[in-house]
Amino acid sequence: MAGCCKGNPKATPPVPPTPKEEPCPHTPWCVNCKGDHPAFSSHCKYWDHRFDREWIMEEYRKTNGGGHPQRN
Ligand SMILES: [Zn+2]
Ligand SMILES: [Zn+2]
After folding, report:
1. How far apart are the first and last CA of the chain?
2. 21 CA distance to ligand 1 middle (Å)
3. Is-contact 57 49, C-beta < 8 A?
4. Distance from the CA of 60 to the center of ligand 2, in angstroms?
5. From CA 24, how far away is CA 5, in angstroms rounded?
6. Which residues neighbour ligand 2 (ion) by CB within 5 Å?
7. What does each of the 72 residues of the chain score in pLDDT, given as a tens digit?
8. Ligand 1 center to residue 54 CA distance, Å?
């Protein structure tokens, strides 16, 4: 099950978990390129360049208008 489907009973209003037989209704969102796929998706252009730190820094500047990528 996707992390977004676990629900959050502490949220206001509470977010119910998605029944596991149902597909994920949430729109995935990539924190790297702001694309409509999960950040770990192999569709992400960042994925292709995940070992190319300079490319990532350059692309991150273009996407985010400056600043530095967050370290995980
Ligand atoms: Zn979901
Ligand atoms: Zn992406």
Report:
1. 22
2. 12
3. no
4. 11
5. 7
6. 30, 32-33, 35, 44
7. 667 789 989 988 998 999 989 988 887 788 888 888 888 888 899 888 989 999 989 988 887 775 566 666
8. 32
